[in-house]
Amino acid sequence: MKAIQDYYPEELSHCYGCGSQNEHGHQIKTYWDGDETVTRFTPEPYHTAVPGFVYGGLIASLIDCHGTGSAAAATYRAEGREPGTEPLVRFVTGSLKVTYLKPTKLGPEIEIRGRVRELKERKVVIDSRVLVDGVETALGEVVAIRMPADFGKAV
Ligand SMILES: CCCCCCCCCCCCCCCC(=O)SCCNC(=O)CCNC(=O)[C@H](O)C(C)(C)COP(=O)(O)OP(=O)(O)OC[C@H]1O[C@@H](n2cnc3c(N)ncnc32)[C@H](O)[C@@H]1OP(=O)(O)O
């Protein structure tokens, strides 16, 4: 099964969170599981906050790219199109909210499960749950916005 990120064109695959071309990044992969999207990631020992527990910034980063990837996947699904078909669906993060419910144990695989709360042409909201060993440790909300054609050009 291909992940949504496997459909990203090479020139848009340099993101620190999800770019397959970024050797220093997380290179996350997001798949459908029924109505939910799932990303799994095993943290390294250096992803430490307090010894034994995962750094919250890593969790935020995973939720971020899980959210934008899920937004693209959900848009293709809603339009009844194969991922990666033209016109390409590109999302960036408009906002990212993370609620840390309890410490996330460092070592086991982290699972992030997303659901679409709102889907419009230019804006998709993805709610995520972060689980380790079946324990919910954080919640995330990503507002993903279609990347404007001139993204970054005015900067
Ligand atoms: C399958 C094949 C795919 C192929 C293709 C792949 C492409 C794969 C790309 C990889 C990329 C990875 C991405 C990783 C995630 C980052 O790290 S992305 C980097 C961090 N994010 C940024 O740099 C974004 C910077 N901000 C911006 O460029 C602009 O502010 C935005 C977010 C594009 C918004 O543009 P805008 O023109 O202000 O949007 P606008 O039309 O006013 O608003 C549209 C809607 O969004 C809402 N909105 C706008 N901004 C926000 C906000 N900040 N918060 C909440 N709501 C907002 C508006 O309220 C509006 O909502 P409605 O009224 O329709 O309900």
TrEMBL record:
EC number of this enzyme: 3.1.2.2
Keywords for this protein: Apoptosis, Cell membrane, Cell projection, Cytoplasm, Fatty acid metabolism, Hydrolase, Lipid metabolism, Membrane, Transit peptide
InterPro entries xrefs: HotDog_dom_sf (IPR029069), THEM4/THEM5_acyl-CoA_thioest (IPR052365), Thioestr_dom (IPR006683)
Primary location group: membrane
Topology relative to the membrane: Peripheral membrane protein
Catalytic reaction list: hexadecanoyl-CoA + H2O = hexadecanoate + CoA + H(+); dodecanoyl-CoA + H2O = dodecanoate + CoA + H(+); tetradecanoyl-CoA + H2O = tetradecanoate + CoA + H(+); (9Z)-octadecenoyl-CoA + H2O = (9Z)-octadecenoate + CoA + H(+)
CDD domains: PaaI_thioesterase (cd03443)
GO molecular function: thiolester hydrolase activity
Alphabetical list of Pfam families matching this protein: 4HBT (PF03061)
First-level EC class: hydrolase
GO biological process assignments: fatty acid metabolic process
Compartments (UniProt record): Cell projection, Ruffle membrane; Cytoplasm; Membrane
The Thioesterase domain, residue ranges: 52-131
Domain of life of the organism encoding this protein: Bacteria
SUPFAM superfamilies with a match to the protein in the record: Thioesterase/thiol ester dehydrase-isomerase
Protein name stated in the entry: Acyl-coenzyme A thioesterase THEM4
Organism lineage: Bacteria, Pseudomonadati, Pseudomonadota, Alphaproteobacteria, Acetobacterales
